[in-house]
Design a protein that fits this description.
Shape: globular
Helix content: 10-25%
Distance between the termini: 52 Å
Radius of gyration: 20 Å
Order of helices and strands: HEEEEEEHEE
Number of strands: 8
Largest sheet: 8 strands, antiparallel
Structural class: alpha+beta
Strand content: 25-35%
Number of helices: 2
């Protein structure tokens, strides 16, 4: 084999696995920029977060989740003002407060669409912003269908 042929084979052997790795990482990871104040003080507007795409069954109370916003008029969820667009998709970031089988916490309280003490049914999540005065979340929208769950915030990557 000529030196040029050897270099070509070596380049393919290095580049192909790297491309496969990057494609796999792109399917599992997402970077979202925070826009708005619903998650203050935990996340500030302009923060970028790394999101790990996982099934909704991996969501736990207390984790920060990214939810996909449905497109178009007449969809189940109204678009909160803090929703962000990344790559043509619209996302919102909230803290998971209860998952299916959990009780709705007492602090969610009266004056909401929820009844404290009720159980979150299968296929739904209770999500809240950390800054209740500036958040549109389950207090106004009710329980969120699990189909809108994208993944969990793994870490903040910039602030």
């Amino acid at each position: 084999m000529t030196p040029l042929g050897f270099l070509s084979v070596a380049a393919v052997c290095v580049c192909l696995p790297a491309c496969v790795f990057l494609l796999a990482a792109r399917r599992r990871l997402l970077v979202v920029t925070v826009d708005g104040y619903s998650m203050r003080p935990t996340l500030e507007s302009g923060d970028r977060v790394l999101v790990r795409r996982v099934p909704v069954t991996r969501a736990r109370a207390g984790t920060i989740a990214v939810l996909r916003q449905p497109a178009g008029p007449g969809t189940l969820l109204p678009l909160p003002p803090e929703a962000v667009e990344e790559g043509g998709r619209i996302y919102t970031i909230k803290r998971v407060s209860a998952v299916p089988g959990d009780r709705i916490p007492d602090h969610v309280g009266p004056g909401t669409m929820l009844t404290p003490g009720d159980t979150v049914p299968a296929g739904h999540l209770l999500v809240l912003g950390d800054n209740p005065d500036r958040s549109i979340d389950s207090r106004q929208l009710g329980l969120i269908p699990a189909e809108y769950f994208v993944g969990v915030v793994a870490r903040r990557i910039t602030s």
